[in-house]
Amino acid sequence: MKDIQLTHTGVFHLEQLEDLIYERYHEEFNIEDDESLRDLVRFASRLQDTDIQREFLLFFLNCGPEMQAKLKSGDEVDSNNYIRRNESW
Length: 89
Hints:
Largest sheet: none
Strand content: under 5%
Distance between the termini: 19 Å
Helix content: 55-70%
Number of helices: 5
Low-confidence stretches: none
Order of helices and strands: HHHHH
Shape: globular
């Protein structure tokens, strides 16, 4: 995912997501590391936690169209996540 630029707001929501996941699930991720960032997105996309999903959606909505398309079509987001199921995004 390094090949696609993230907005400052997108990075902010990733950091919020990272903090929430650490507080609630004691899982650590490093958004500076590409593989760890992928793991964070995979982990967050399959959780049913409302706060996590809100931050995940805010991250997604603050990505550019190219990044959104990559998230929807790649294997980073769980296939059952609302982002993958909803074609109107």
